[in-house]
Fold these 3 entries.
Entry 1:
Amino acid sequence: MQHILSPSLLSGNFACLSPQFTELSASGVRWLHLDVMDGVFVPNISMGLTVISSIRKATDLFFDTHLMIVDPIRYIRDFADAGADLINFHLEAAEDPEAVIREIRAVGKQAGITIKPGTPVEALRPYVNLVDLILIMSVEPGFGGQSYIPASTQKVADLRKMIDESGSHAKIEIDGGVTPKNAEEILLAGADILVAGSAVFKNSISENVKSFSEIFARIESGDAV
Ligand code: DX5
Ligand code: ZN
């Protein structure tokens, strides 16, 4: 399959978003990762519904919405109305994860589920056939610019096996500390989608995206070792 880069807007410059969307699209990017933090589930507050509905008018990028909020079921309809294309919630934050997935389906959006670094892959087993995407956090959620937790690569490999054995179509996404330096090992472990914040928005967006695209091309042509 074609791999996907989902740049995390958290590392963007919020004073001038439109030119960054233009540069991302011109570089071949199709997804945008939107980190929503409530200051309760994670010790930080980021963007919310107002930002998402305004930027929805400024870009056609696919909105990959990562909810780091407690009791996410309360806000699924609102994020759908704001313009999310995929709604991704934390397993640890939901009392009844299946009910959240049903709610995401009811509003006609793609559904994703996420685990923090301390949550085992095994906890995802009941949901692998119910979602479109599973996100493995490779840093503690809450902040951009942290270092990749090396044990995350094995979690990707374990999840790849679980998904393949179950016949699920869910894509594997990884988020936190991803750079062109560790991208190849993560992709070889079986990830489909890389989220990258600082590694995309620091310095030149187009140069950074090019570095990731070259790695994707190498993996897809089977040239990687
Ligand atoms: C952290 C967020 C990430 C973060 C990634 O809670 O979920 O999406 O922005 O940023 P980098 O790529 O800089 O680690
Ligand atoms: Zn994220």
Entry 2:
Amino acid sequence: MTDIMNPKRAIVTGGSRGIGKAIVKELVTRVNNGTHFADVVFTYNSSKEKADELEKELSATGAKVFGIKADSSSMSDAQAAVDFAVEKLGGVDLLINNAGITRDNLMLRMSEDDWNQVISANLTGVFNYNKVVLKPMMAQRYGRIVNISSIVGLIGNAGQANYAASKAGVFGFTKSLAKEVASRNITVNALAPGFIETDMTDKLNEKQKEALLSNIPLKRMGKAEDIARVVIFLCSEDADYITGQVIAVDGGMVM
Ligand code: NAP
């Protein structure tokens, strides 16, 4: 097995806010074998100011951290982001596909745009980044890929047929790719977060939040850091023998 140097070199899509931001922070600040866990290139779509702030804050630690604009639904943007990471970090060891959006509506009112945008950003985005990182990962015979899906892809949710389809697609994709690339020492896993405090769930009203909370055995919403810590685990040596798995991080909502 190839000995991968520390710090590792990571790409995180959608790292400017929410869960992605927590993942970027954890990668940069977690100590591993006497250094930080990873140098990071993270992407965003529109929140340049937040991305610049995060890049500045974390660069002050001495780690290499770069935020760049790259729309996950665009293959050419994905290729440019990976090329940028190879240039600035010297390669790519970890890929965290986190970028995602919702365009909720009941089916009778769901437009083709609502459908296409969500499938493009959430599912085609996962295809795009996985496809372009494989070459460098296969060449170095090492890679750790974590695709952030959702429990909605497991159990469905009224008003989210587009989102659920995109996230369920990520599970099938993850398992198929895991089988394809395991012989090259590349693991591919998916996380299924439950109900996590971010801008995405801020849109819910109090009544919706109460209803959701009543279905969470651990009786609290998750924090972005709850997801970030599991991502670090899947990217660490402790998880070397785990691939093709869907891990729910949801306070027990789905069991
Ligand atoms: P969020 O707070 O809305 O943040 C989304 C992040 O993704 C932002 O950095 C955003 O960048 C980026 N992004 C969105 N569309 C993009 C695109 N087309 N290209 C590149 N970046 C894009 O969302 P979150 O709650 O942290 O969710 C992160 C992931 O976890 C998503 O895949 C989501 O489906 C999943 N998830 C979340 C929950 C939850 O309860 N929050 C539960 C299950 C799964 P900009 O700032 O530039 O827009």
Entry 3:
Amino acid sequence: MKILKRRSWEIPEREATPEHVFFNRRQILAGLAGSGALIGSGLGMRPAFAEENPSAGLYPVPRNEAYKLDREITKEEIASKYNNFYEFGSHKQIWPAAQKLEIRPWTVALEGMIDNPQTLGIDDLLARMPLEERLYRHRCVEAWSMAVPWSGFPLAELVKLAGPQAGAKYLRFETFLDPSVASGQKQSWYPWPYVEGLTLEEATNELAFIATGVYGKPLAKQFGAPIRLVTPWKYGFKSIKSIVKISFTDQRPVSFWEEIQSSEYGFWANVNPEVPHKRWPQSTEQVLGTDERRDTLLYNGYAEQVAGMYKDLTDEPLFM
Ligand code: MTE
């Protein structure tokens, strides 16, 4: 397990407080009522999404204590019933629809400008990767946020396995395409499949993470099972779900939202409270499951790890 030095934004181990100590149902209801998340949410049912998953025995995995929070972990029942996954609908209560997704067999293709192109079965991949848990903040461009215990492995490990060639500059990620399962994909005005991209430097940054689990279990389907990206210094739309392909390329990928509206959603999408989106001021965020609005932090509080990657890119729209 990798142990890193304490970061400036870390606070003492308060955030690992057991759920029942900080969970206040009234607060959650107040927070959700404000966000409209209660409609059809089935609040009160325990999530039981992961039971049949063949990788269930791998979890929980050891926590990497280097990644700490400045806030409480969002209750699982809240985070798992308030999701963006347009393949299953353009609202937040997609979790029942997402259960239709078949996650075995599942393969991830590594292709493009690499020495080791291959298609990996998800369980082979899980067996080869060093699994760990990390507590990360998540900031959606829609100005809500949560804090989640992801399980998975550093994206840098997958990059190492692929063996990028000298000219490779970007990673292009792609989600599955199956409109018979994901009815949102029948909406032909969206440019399916969902695509996202990172620079190779971003992909090998210590924070870039591939999540295969959450809350000590395999990823529930609505979180993007069986494998998703997590880039906590960027707006949440970069965290592409249910990945089937990663291509290494010298061409900057055009992402799903960028293709839909490039004046609002860019390639970089780094969190910055001082750069408002057309529809959402970004200075503060609604913390899911609470009635709290917090000040948003530059790079979502991860400047120390990531700001250096952008210092020479003064002409790029880094924050949209
Ligand atoms: N990935 C796919 N394939 N489809 C999506 O609609 N939504 C994105 C991102 N990844 C999305 C996706 C957006 S806008 C956000 S905020 C996060 O997933 C939401 O992740 P969560 O549901 O785990 O909170």
